[in-house]
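User: Fold this, then the next.

Assistant: Folding the first:
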Amino acid sequence: MTGVAQPRVQLIDADNSAFSYFGRTDQSDPKVVRFDWPGVYLRCAFTGNTLAVRLKSGDRDYFNVFVDDQPVKVIHPATDSIFIYNGLTGKGVHELLISKRTEADMGMASFYGIGIAPDGKITSSKVKNNRRIEFIGNSITCGYGAEGLSGKERFKPETENSYFSYASITARAFSADYALIAHSGLGIIRNYNDKSKISTRLAPMPPRLGRTFDTDSVKKWDFNRWKPDAVVINLGTNDYSTLPHPDKAVFKRHYEQLIEKIIEVYGEIPVFCVVGPMTNEPCYSIVKEVVEDYRLIHGDTKVYFAGIPDGLLNNGSDLGSDGHPSYRGQKKSAASLVPLMANVMKWSYHDKEIRFGEEY
């Protein structure tokens, strides 16, 4: 990293114990934390009125920077590897949150640390959540196009924002930490618009569950590093998006195997199988059958179906790029899922972000 000392800052390396990382990261080089999954985020607190973010990634990768819960910058660290922010007021303690907006195809991130004022101090974040949720999904979970201006607008990387995904919104409603294992266009066995019933050129989502990096099939993830209290699966939309549809029995078996893998690595925790809001039949009925059959065969009452209807979203403000849910549409999806999860998990939640009142 070059030029990091202008203006003068105190460098804090990525291995400082004050940093907390959420989502799948590789810290084999302690001075560089690497990650590519969408929604990976980090927290810390610091004092002083200067902040530099030492981050490098691909030319399509974007990140949110929040200070004291306020968004202060979207950074594009292919050209902005040193971001200096001098807009802080006062020298009190500030909370920092940095989250990866974009998915793995947009770039592999390397986080080197931050710079703060020469007389500043870094401490652990005061945000301590005691709930954890993992989300496994496709473009909807990634927040693909969530900042697009209309459903007719073509996707651009800068319109993707995992922070605006129903998944992240749901986690915030529960004050839960979260991880997103998601990749646009992928399914259980068939990826978007594939000419075959089973995709072979690009691995669908289930084989990626064991990866540290989405884009690396070799480096395996240690499931003991992070144990969620619940897992949410939202897959099937791409399998049934176009013809030919996968064979029902094959789709169901692979979906069941994904549930079995989750329970194998995490234990008998609740698994929520979500469908929607960008698909309808036959995906709804087939995933519901998966859940019903799994519960019957395995005697497992901790697997749940959650259907988000395609009619939930209007064609105006609820849609972003390429007809995907906008932030408003994503909030509607979260509002549909949160009460079910609350009942099952016996968790309280706040509805500040998902409250709609008289809106539609």
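Now the next one, as you asked:
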Amino acid sequence: MSDSLHQEVTRLLSLGRTPEALAVGEAVATDWARRGQPLRAIALCRVLLQLEPAHSRTPQLLADLYAQQPKAPKGTAPTPGAGALPRVPLFSQLDREAFMAVLSTLELRTFQPGQNLITEGEPGRSTFTLVEGQVDVTRQLDGGERRTIASLGEGDLFGEIALMSESPRMATVTATRLSLALEMHRTRLERVAMKHPSVTETVRTFYRERLLANVLRSNPVFTALTPEQRQALSGIFELRTMKAGQVIIDQGQKGDGLYLLLQGQCTPVFRHPDGRQTSFPPLREGDVFGEISLLLGQPATATVRSETQCHVLRLGREAFEQYLSSQPRVRAALMRLGTERLLHISKLLSGRAVHDGDQRV
């Protein structure tokens, strides 16, 4: 038996729709599953279902090993294997039946070096998990230059925004080696959710946690937090989708929460006493806003409006106060950010030049 998924897939397909193919595939997938290689096992399971759509033993085995297990009745032992093997992103948050249903929606895709899995600007309709190989993530900058922002390998998941909306892809993902990936289509997942309603909330929770983890990891305000603290914080943020043109924060009104921009574009606008308006540079992915009103107890100092459909995370006022009371370093970082922004507005009011290095908002 080879540890290469590509070699095993090629071998199975060469055997065709035969009992031998099912027996070999089931044995290899079971071995990978029990050795804690769930993605390879799931990928091979998809090949088995392609050869024999009614095949159920391997999907049931994977569900028993990796799905969220029901709580054992008092006085009984938990399901063997539950929690003993590595969690599978998204899948391990599903119950057994939903796990098997979602597994049936996956498509195993092969990509040659140089082939795009995702192309920037195209509508997002699916998410990918890389099972084998390597990909580069590139983004086009304002000046037209294309920059590599990440290299991803086995086990990495990308394109998750497509689970929630058909927003344009924000980057291009290109295979740099022969790569195999599991693709999950949003429309297929929606059909599964009609029969298994828990899938909808599981996907929303998974999506929120993934995006928030990325933001908290890169935002300087939250870099002082440990991974465990960031995980705890992710549970109290609320995911909101804003339509284009919607006011998120209204200047002069009391702020209702701290916001993190996950995806889309928002423009902060300052309204002068004489009615004139000054627009600030657009907020970027990962930017925090709304902190001045919360920290200082003042009305919002600018209006923030969504220019496109936006996904934001909101931490309500009460949760904000409760959380920050135990995180003085985060409060201090937000105070510094708020002070810089107030200085920015002060320069606008005085007619002094505002330089590009000043904080946005």
